[in-house]
Amino acid sequence: MAAVTETLEVHASRGRLRFALVAPAPDGVQRIPIVDTLLVGKHPSNDVVLESQGVSRYHLELRAEPTCVLVRDVGSKNGTFFDGARITEARLGPGTSFRVGGLQGAELLIESDGAPVLAPSAATRFGPLTGESKSMRAVFALLERTASSRTTLLIRGETGTGKELVAKAVHAASPRVDAPLVVVDCGAIPEPLIESELFGHVKGAFTDAATDRVGAFERADGGTLLLDEVGELPIHLQPKLLRAVEDRSVQRVGDGARRPVDVRLLAATNRDLTTEVSAGRFRQDLFFRLAVVTVELPPLRERGGDVLRLAEQMLEELGLDSELVRNERLKAALLGYQWPGNVRELRNAIERAAHLGAEHAVPMAAVAPDRPPDVDDLPFKEAKERIVASFERAYVERLLERHGKNISAAARDADIDRNYLYRLLKKHGLSRP
């Protein structure tokens, strides 16, 4: 394969960013700050020592620049690769991964402690996604740069932030728009059936295999495959997914042959996969293959006035009175609520308000403490934080009481992630059931 120089620049931030290299380590993952220059290779004298086969004694050099990292192969035997192409030198931004040493080598990831990877887009929408907040326009900038490519995206965000909607928008903006978009929810399929759902099976492969079955990879051939909640994938199936991602080929259960597939892969999760890797629940090599570019979706509570614009858009889509969102009581409730269920919860709230009245938009009246905290003499920001904290504590206490302290049932009823509910308990000093 021909070498490529100056392959890509996936950055557009102003100012200087701080970078780190995420690399495999014997006990999980190591994260090394990139200050000036890092040397990477197998020899102990390197700044980052990799034991993987295929890595040369002195393999590559990383040099931090203001908005990217210069990755330069220093004459390695087995090469350095980005997105399937062998590179001699490339400038890569945070959220991108690359491979050293071929198939027997190691996957490396560049991260940044600096804020947006790209300068926010001037656009306020990307396909069906809408937002004027800086955090959402930063997401749009990233999608604008990557939607038309084959690059694998890892979409991260809390439950209800719209991860599947991002996948649909990316597919619609890609050259694959006329081919299928196939979605597989890895957390909703019983474990014994996941392999068959992903890769298919042949007749007689197991007791209930009465006919051949085409898996999700083959159904998405020529198009896009979204692996939703990929963090839920059982550890024993992850090597098979890794091979499918690397080779773009699949092997049906019970079949000895591999079948090539042409698939743009997207993955979504509400988990922190770096934590999952360190805990041994997610393979680090699969993580690096999925996190070529990471899209971080902000929670609704961090999107400011977007909540009102989204509410108005939802009312129009539902064919309901868009004037409702101009109700001052409803506006105050929408802006003051923390939206643990994010955009999904907002849609439910808007439908409820449209049919029952503005006071039913969010459960403020039902869960607010009998006597709100006295905040008249406090600055606005501190007053708001105190009222919100008081509301959160009362909401969680009554939610758990209503469900007999069953965390799973309470999280489902509130339409929030269990981990977020646990964080609320910790935040307000409430004991875990």
Structural features, described:
The protein is α/β, with parallel strands linked by helices and 433 residues long. It is 32% helix and 21% strand. It has 14 helices and 22 strands. The strands form five sheets. Strands 1, 2, 3, 4, 5, 6, 7, 8, 9, 10 and 11 form an eleven-stranded mixed beta sheet that branches. Helix 5 (238-247) packs across helix 7 (284-290) and helix 8 crosses helix 10 (342-356). The longest helix has 23 residues, at 380-402. Mean pLDDT is 83; it is low at 1-15 and 364-371.
Overall 3D geometry? globular
Helix amount, in percent?
25-40%
Q: Tell me the distance between the termini.
A: 57 Å
Helix/sheet category: alpha/beta
Gist?
With 433 residues, the chain is an alpha/beta fold. It is built from 14 helices and 22 strands.
Walk me through the topology.
Elements: E1 3-5, E2 19-25, E3 28-34, E4 37-41, E5 48-49, E6 60-64, E7 69-73, E8 80-82, E9 85-92, E10 97-100, E11 106-112, E12 125-126, E13 129-130, H1 134-146, E14 153-156, H2 163-172, E15 181-185, H3 191-199, E16 200-201, E17 213-214, H4 216-219, E18 224-228, H5 238-247, E19 249-250, E20 259-260, E21 264-269, H6 273-278, H7 284-290, E22 293-296, H8 306-317, H9 328-336, H10 342-356, H11 364-367, H12 380-402, H13 407-414, H14 418-427
Parallel strand pairs: 1-9, 4-5, 14-21, 14-22, 15-18, 18-21
Antiparallel strand pairs: 2-3, 2-11, 4-6, 6-7, 7-9, 8-9, 8-10, 10-11, 12-13, 16-17, 19-20
